[in-house]
Structure formats: C-alpha cells, structure tokens
From TrEMBL:
PANTHER family noted in UniProt: ATP PHOSPHORIBOSYLTRANSFERASE, ATP PHOSPHORIBOSYLTRANSFERASE ATP-PRTASE
Ranges for domain ATP phosphoribosyltransferase catalytic: 49-184
GO molecular function: ATP binding; ATP phosphoribosyltransferase activity; magnesium ion binding
Assigned GO CC terms: cytoplasm
Keywords, ordered alphabetically: Amino-acid biosynthesis, ATP-binding, Cytoplasm, Glycosyltransferase, Histidine biosynthesis, Magnesium, Metal-binding, Nucleotide-binding, Transferase
Species whose genome carries this gene: Agrococcus casei LMG 22410
Coiled coil: none
Means of activity regulation: Feedback inhibited by histidine.
Pathway the protein contributes to: Amino-acid biosynthesis; L-histidine biosynthesis; L-histidine from 5-phospho-alpha-D-ribose 1-diphosphate: step 1/9
Cofactors named for this entry: Mg(2+)
Name of the protein in its database record: ATP phosphoribosyltransferase
EC number: 2.4.2.17
Matches recorded under InterPro entries: ATP-PRT_HisG_long, ATP_PRibTrfase_cat, ATP_PRibTrfase_CS, ATP_PRibTrfase_HisG, HisG_C, N-reg_PII-like_a/b, N-reg_PII/ATP_PRibTrfase_C
Catalytic reactions on record: 1-(5-phospho-beta-D-ribosyl)-ATP + diphosphate = 5-phospho-alpha-D-ribose 1-diphosphate + ATP
Amino acid sequence: MLKIAVPNKGALSETAAAMLAEAGYRGRRDSKELTVTDVENDVEFFYLRPRDIATYVGSGALDVGITGRDLFLDSGSPAIELKELGFARSTFRFAGPVGRFSSLADLEGMRIASSYTRLVDEALAAAGVNATSVHLDGAVESSVKLGVADAVADVVETGTTLRTQGLEPFGDAILSSEAILIGSGVEAPGLAKLRRRLNGVLVARRYVLLDYDVHRDSLDETVRVASGMESPTVSPLHDPDWVAVRVMVESSRTNEIMDALAEAGARAILVTNIVAARI
Ligand SMILES: Nc1ncnc2c1ncn2[C@@H]1O[C@H](COP(=O)(O)OP(=O)(O)OP(=O)(O)O)[C@@H](O)[C@H]1O
Ligand SMILES: O=P(O)(O)OC[C@H]1O[C@H](OP(=O)(O)OP(=O)(O)O)[C@H](O)[C@@H]1O
Ligand SMILES: [Mg+2]
C-alpha cells in the first residue's frame, strides 16, 4: 500500500487535499483524523505537519509526500523532488528596514531571523558572509521592530507582509518555491498511478477546451493560432464548406486566443473547462 504524507494544516493543506480529491482519492472527512486508508486505490494517507513531511519521506517511513520546496530544502532530508504541483508559489528572500541593506555583504555581523535557518546559513556561507541566524517559528517580519534581529529571511508572495512591517527585500531571491511531490527514492507500487493522476489534475487546471466553427478556407489560419497538444480535432459540419474544430489551449491565454481566432475567421467560439485528463 502506497504511503502518502499530506500537510495537516497551514498554507498547503487545503489545496493539497483538493488536488488529491480531484485525482480520485478518498481524503479525510474530519480535520482531526491523522490517517485515512483508501482501500479502493490501495493507498494510506498520513496527515502531518508540512515541515515534518520531508523527514518522514527521507527516512523511508513514508513513500511520498506533498510539501513546499523551501520546507524540503530547509529540512536537509535525503528525499528527492519528484514533481512540481503548481500552487503555493513564493520566493524566499532576505529583507531589512527600507533603505538599510542593499546586498548580502551588508549582513556581515548582523542577526537574521527566519523559520528556515538552514537555508539562511547556506546562503550566507555561499556568499562568504558571517552573520548569526535567529530561529523563529513564524511572524518573522515582526522581529526587526521588536529588536531581536537586524534583518529577516522569509517567504514572500505579494510582499505585503514585509511592507506593513517597514521592510523591503534585497539581494537575489534565495530560492523559488512551490508545492512539490517528494519521494523516498523507491519506486513504490501505486506511485506511477499517483503521478499520472496528479498530472491529470494539473493539465485539467491548466488547460481549457476551445470549440469553434470555421470556413475551410480559413482553417489553416485558425490552426496556426491554436494548434493544440498534438493536432486539433476537425469534424465535418452539415454545410460542406464549414468544419467544427476542437483544441486544448492554456487557460491563462483563453481570451487572447479567442480574439485571434475570431480575427482569423472562427465563429461560435465556445470555452469548456476540463474536469480530468490523462495526457
Ligand atoms: N503567502 C504565501 N504564498 C505562497 N506560499 C506560501 C505563503 N505562505 C506560506 N507559503 C508556503 O507554505 C509553506 C509553509 O507551510 P506552513 O504550513 O508553514 O504554512 P503556514 O500557513 O505558514 O503555516 P503556519 O501557520 O504553521 O506558519 C511553504 O512552502 C511556504 O512557501
Ligand atoms: O508576501 P505576502 O503575500 O505578504 O505573503 C508572505 C507571508 O505569508 C506567510 O505568512 P503566514 O501567514 O503563513 O504567517 P507566518 O509568518 O506565521 O508563517 C509567510 O510566512 C509570509 O509572512
Ligand atoms: Mg507560515
């Protein structure tokens, strides 16, 4: 039975659970449940602290898990990254009071607060900077105002939290993070199926189906606008001069592509969400 670690709370838990449900697995019904066995799919879910997931998977106690790349790298676990899951995207950055620091070299001798002290120590060592990291569990942005640190290193999405505390990021991002699937390195039974299913969810979320009608004379032009994964499906219409076309396009480009198709002669352009997919 494939053993899968899932975040039990925090920023990753809801989307991770939603993805697994979309992939056809049975999740927990109550947020207090620590384990769930999905007999039909031959998998067992373990609901764990996101920060601990890399430790369990790296030790081989569990086969795979969902966590953040930043948490995984900070853990020092020997697990391996198997797949990007496309949510909880953020960067991990140094930040300090507005105007105070401009490069890592300015951190020499400073105290740097973070929940990710291994990542901080590695970044400082790589830059040849001697500084002290101060481990905090969260709300790291408050530490400078409160006088326990001179700078911070933290997760930045919109940058709003930093700004509200009078801080600004400086230097290059330490890393780009997102939710990922990690594995113990063993090709456990059921792992290929899980990966295929998660891939299906990602494709379903990322693409939409476009249907349109077009005169045969304009078909080549509309196919140039949107050529699909392999090649568009072209079906005859009752009027022999016209055809119906179906093609997958990236949902983020839907409107731009619809405009270009209309310009190229497409009519009755319809958009449909994809519920699930195997590509
Ligand atoms: N605002 C955010 N945008 C994108 N990703 C985020 C954000 N905040 C946290 N993350 C990501 O979520 C993961 C952290 O998970 P964690 O469970 O610690 O979230 P949390 O909401 O900060 O929980 P906690 O309440 O324990 O601090 C990391 O991978 C981090 O990059
Ligand atoms: O750049 P932003 O869009 O402001 O998002 C980044 C913030 O979101 C997370 O905080 P969270 O709410 O998880 O609190 P925490 O610091 O206690 O973990 C993260 O730790 C940052 O503080
Ligand atoms: Mg947090």
